[in-house]
Amino acid sequence: MTSITLAKFESFQKTGVSLLDCRPTDDFASSFIPDSVNASINGSFEYMATCLFSKKEPLVIICKDHRGSEAFLRLEIEGFEDLHTFDFSKWVNEGKNTNTISRYKATEAHKYVSVMKDVSNSEDWEVLHVKDVINTPLIDIVQNPSLVSKGDVLYCGNGHKSLAAVSFLKKEGVSTIDIVGGLSAMLVDAPDLEI
Question: Does domain 103-189 have CATH number 3.40.50.970?
Answer without folding.
Answer: no
